[in-house]
Structures are given as C-alpha cells and as structure tokens.
Amino acid sequence: MTQEPTEQPKGHGQTAGDRSAHEAGAKDALLRTDEVVAGYVPGVNILNGCDFYVGDGELVGIIGPNGAGKSTLLKAIFGLIQVSSGSITLRGEDITGFKANKLVAKGVGFVPQTNNVFPSLTIEENLQMGVYQAPKKFRKSFEFVTGLFPALGDRRAQRAGSLSGGERQMVAMGRALMMEPSVLLLDEPSAGLSPALQDEVFVRTRQINRAGVSVIMVEQNARRCLQICDRGYVLDQGRNAYTASGKDLINDPKVIELYLGTLAKA
Question: Of 180, 176, 225, whose CA–CA distance to 201 is shortest?
Fold first, then answer.
C-alpha cells in the first residue's frame, strides 16, 4: 500500500492532519464525514479517521491507491457498513448508521460498481424500482431522467439484462435519480467500460451535476475524474491524504508521482 508522502504536494488544498481546513470548508456542507472509522470486520478498520465534505452543487472526486478506502467511504455514508466512531451528517443532521432506505428518502442516492440493475426487468421497471418508496413520483421523475438519458425513454420496454455495460450504467444512474436526490454517490462508474463509454459516463455525470445534483464520485480513472470535478480527495490508508481543486491535484508533481503515476501522465 502506498505510504504517506514525506513531502506534501505544493497546491493550496488541505493536507493530512490539517483538520482546521476541513472544519472551515465543511461548515455549511451538504454532507460531511468527520473522523470516520469503519470496516467490514470488527476490529479491522479500512477507514481510519476519514474527513470529507461535499457542498451544494459540487462534484467531488475521490481517488487513491487500491485498498485506500475509497469505496468503503461511500458504503459507510450509505449505511452499508458499520461506522465504529466518527460522524456523518446531512444538512446538519447526524445520519451515522442510518439504513439505506431511510437515506434514500432523505435525498441520498447510491450507484454501486457491480450488480447495479435488475437484469430480468425492463428499463422502465428498473426506474420504477427507484421510486418504490414514493410511486406517485414516477411520472415526473421519469421525465427528468429520460431528459438526461433520452435512450432510456426510447428503449423503456427493453430488458436491462440485454444492455451493454455502459447502457446498464445509465440505467443504474437513472434509477438512483428517480427519488430526486440532493447528493448522488457513484462507485467506480467507468470500471470495465471501453474508453468511449468511459467518456460518456463522465459527460453524463457532469450533466447530472449541472442539473442540480451534488455528486461524490469514486474513480479508478483518476486523471479523467480530476478533469471534471470541482474538488478532489486523495485517500491513502483510510484517511484523507490531500484535497484541493481537481486542477491543482492533476498538475501537482508530487500527487502525480505518489498517487496518479502513469495514469496521470497518459
């Protein structure tokens, strides 16, 4: 696993251990985590005091080496793993440990990396599943989602299992948007896709953000992620190693050397 840098990057963001910058930036945040410790097995922590925040209308990317805790952070936010200490708040309300269905009702959407559609159901039925808690929202939400993803409306009767990987990703995003979330969590949305389809995912993610949804995106394609995000976080060994604007991170020599490697130089 990548070691903590001995020389900090030269950008103007927050470095590891600088909680004052986090506190200042997260003061009026839409969603924030404070010193979160969490893992999949009791006593074995993946997150080790993770600080994070996203503001209204922001698109925030999370990058870092394998095993750094990127996907674990999203799962902790969405109540899929137990948080042993620290807190997660949404608009000032403590939501630490809330179950996924309650979080969806409060405006948090989540798109997992795999198994993110119901393959035996049609596209329309998948989208209906997105509003199972509030079925009366279907018509309005369907219009919004198909406005972002017109192909979903055109092919609404097609079974999701017959779609390509990129098309399934659009269905998964669309279903998560059906409850009109204020913040959308995306776990590795470009994983396993061709370069062309990866680019479409990033374009669509930016469209979702511009439609008024705050987005938190964990990404393996670090360079492309930092190109579109407002801010980026580098997670390392379960905590925030560094955060700054996407532009600052992608151009910082130490971030490139320690975290982006050949991916950023491509």
Answer: 225
